[in-house]
Structure formats: C-alpha cells, structure tokens
Specification:
Layout lengths: L7 E6 L3 H14 L3 E8 L13 H11 L2 E6 L6 H14 L5 E3 L6 H14 L2 E3 L7 H10 L3 E8 L5 H4 L6 H8 L13 E7 L9 E8 L3 E8 L1
Parallel strand pairs: 1-2, 1-4, 2-3, 4-5
Antiparallel strand pairs: 6-7, 6-9, 8-9
Helix pairs in contact: 1-5
Protein name: Diphthamide synthase domain-containing protein
Pfam family, one: Diphthami_syn_2
Organism: Porphyromonas canoris
Length: 226
C-alpha cells in the first residue's frame, strides 16, 4: 500500500480577495497537508505592505482560519522586497514547503517575476486563478460566500464615498465592470480588499472602521478588531 504524497504549500498573502480565492482553489485541487501564509510587512513590521492593514489584523485573520502565518519585514538595506521574500520562502522550505500559491490573474510581468524567484528558491509556483476573467474571479469569490470589504482605493480611479468600506457584491461588481478604465477585479490597483469570513474560516472576524487615511496615491480605511 502506498501513501499519497500531500504537498506543503505557502501562499503569497495580502489578506485580500485574490490570494484567498487562490488558496481556496489550491486546497480543493491539491489537498495540501500544511498551509503557510507568507505576508510581507513594512520595515518595522507593524503594517502589511500591500493593502495598508495592520500586521495584527493579518495575524487574527490567519488564526480565524487556523493557518500558519509568517510575516517578514521588508528591509531597504539588503536587497529590498525580493531578498526579503526569498528569506521568507527559505524559512518555510525548512518546514518542508515545496510549492507556492499565487493569486496572479493575467499580468505577465508579475508572473514572470514569480516564476524566476520560485526557480531561484527551489519551489514550484501554482497559479490557480491564471486565465480567469477579472469579473469571473470576483463573482466566484462572492458565490463561494466569502465576505470581503474594500479597504483601499486608488485616487483618480474610484470614489471613496461610493466604494471605500463597501463589501463586494454582485450589484457592486455590475457597477465596476461598466466603468471606463476600471478592471472589475482591481488588477491594476484600482482597489484592494480584506476578507473577513467565508468557507475557510473557523469563525468570522469582527471589526469596525475607525477612520480614513491617505497618501499621494490611495485612500485607506483603518480597521479595528472587536
């Protein structure tokens, strides 16, 4: 009798919709024995880099799903993002990780970067969402009953009054898909999200919006755990 090999995977993690759906599909397809979320943070480790969310919020999200989380602070000295990402991959390879899951949909330049970095590290990349249409990604997430809030939007692309803090829904997606110059999945940075409940969660995350901040390119909601 042979034992079926079950891989250990890492997921490039922002806490948002694309990585969540990619993880969901990877679990359905590959039934991994272990899942590790790899989250890149700012230099002092207090904030997740991609969506302007606190590192603590990422930790609570991982706990709500019963998954391992590795957070790596990106250091400007010593190679920047890529070197820090490779450091995280190396730490997880020690635990037996052989594959990396990524939420890329159609951006060839980013996929090429992922493939090169994975090859240099010695792991195999998996792209569960690759080739899906942007609208299909969001509709799939909604249909799978994930609950997702918009936590940041790009200035000049979307109105904060209309979109910031709203949950993804079919009516909201219908609005996004007919807006000129807007990718309905936000693949060009139009908006970013945070998933707080769904089929991978053992319990939902409760939070409230305590304020709004901005930089030269984005508006952000500040989320406080309850």
């Amino acid at each position: 009798m042979t034992t079926r090999y079950r891989m250990k995977i890492l997921v490039s993690w922002s806490g948002g919709k694309d990585c969540m759906l990619a993880l969901h599909k990877a679990i359905q397809t590959h039934s991994p024995s272990e899942v590790y979320l790899l989250n890149m943070c700012d230099e002092d480790g207090s904030m997740s880099r991609s969506h302007g969310l606190s590192a603590l919020l990422m930790q609570r999200q991982a706990e709500a799903m019963g998954l391992h989380l590795l957070q790596i602070a990106v250091q400007r000295d010593g190679g920047g993002y890529e070197a820090s990402f490779k450091k995280g991959v190396a730490e997880l390879m020690v635990k037996g990780v052989t594959h990396g899951v990524f939420g890329d949909i159609y951006l060839e330049t980013h996929r090429s970067w992922v493939e090169r970095v994975c090859q240099e590290c010695g792991i195999t990349p998996i792209f569960p969402l690759w080739g899906m249409k942007s609208e299909e990604v969001v509709r799939s997430l909604i249909d799978e009953k994930f609950r997702t809030t918009i936590v940041s939007i790009r200035k000049g692309k979307l109105s904060p009054e209309e979109f910031l803090g709203k949950d993804l829904s079919h009516p909201l997606l219908d609005t996004l898909k007919v807006m000129p110059g807007i990718d309905p999945c936000g693949e060009n940075g139009e908006y970013h999200t945070f998933v707080y409940d769904g089929p991978l969660f053992q319990k939902p995350l409760s939070f409230r919006i305590t304020g709004q901040t901005e930089n030269d390119k984005h508006y952000f909601n500040t989320l406080q755990l309850l």
